[in-house]
Amino acid sequence: MLPDTEPSLTSLRERYVAAQLAGNRKEALRLLVDEGLLRGVPLQVLHLEVIQEAQYEIGRLWQENIISVAQEHLATAISQLALAHLYRHLPRDPDNGKVVMMACVKDELHEMGPRMASDFLEMAGFDVRFLGANVPPEHLARMLREVRPDLLALSVTMTYHLPQLREAVAHAREALPGIPIAVGGLAFRWAPILEEQLGVSFFGRDARELVASACRTLGV
Questions:
Q1: Long-range contact list for 163-166, CB < 8 A, 24+ apart?
Q2: With 60 as the cut, is the pLDDT of residue 6 above it?
């Protein structure tokens, strides 16, 4: 990328956050498309360095009580709309024949991260079944038996949902013994050794790492 890209990305991200906080969906999408995609910014960069970083900033503002829960929901809804809008523009590698199932654990409502990770997996040629937020472990197990994916990826954002992660892993292993399991999400910043305790196949710190690890694990 060009040397002056970072300052322009910073400006783009700041204006995107401003549009989120204003509830201006039209302006947020215009920024991503007209000043992002159409100016040659790779979609992966828009995902990670604009939308994801904007969500981190929104989360910080909420944690510091600078914005309300309603404002946080408003901003997040705009990013969900943005990901849906950008989905049709995803550059995709040829199908690699591997199926990945992605889900948030029970009670976990933060699905932006795994939704973005699902897009990155699709770009790498994986067939992704994204189950979204708050998936009860027994229903996850049922879907695993029906689909029989090559990899299960579980996301947890809030640390108080880590017990639900353990439950989901246990149900998955009972439903489909031997299935590789990946885990990820912000909760692992405060529980860095949990992946070792769970004995999962790997821990994806971000979407790019998840894709690289999935490729290595599945021999793609």
A1: 164/105, 164/106, 164/107, 164/108, 164/137, 165/105, 165/194, 165/198, 166/198
A2: no
Structure tokens belonging to residue 87:
């989905």
In sequence order, what are the beta bridge partners of 203? Answer: 183
Q: Checking phi first, is residue 43 left (phi over 0); if not, alpha (psi -120 to 50) or beta?
A: alpha
Q: Which pLDDT tens digit goes with each residue over 99-151?
A: 999 999 999 998 988 999 999 999 999 999 999 999 999 999 999 999 999 99
d(CA 10, CA 167): 40
Please state, in angstroms and rounded to a whole number, the distance separating the CA atoms of residues 148 and 193.
28
Yes or no: say if 57 and 50 are a contact pair by the CB < 8 Å rule.
Answer: no
CA 195 to chain centre: 18
Q: Taking Cα atoms as reference points, which of 156, 102, 146, 104 lies closest to residue 127?
A: 102
* Closest residue by Cα to residue 166 from 145, 146, 187: 187
**Residue 90 neighbours by CB under 8 Å, 6+ apart:** 43, 119, 122, 123
H or E element that contains 31: helix 25-34
Q: Which range has the worst mean pLDDT, 36-50, 127-141, 189-203?
A: 189-203
Strand partners, 182: 153, 202
As a whole number of angstroms, the distance between CA 180 and CA 151 comes to 5
Residues 40, 4: Cα–Cα separation, whole Å: 13
Whether residue 150 contacts residue 182, with contact meaning beta carbons closer than 8 Å, is answered with no
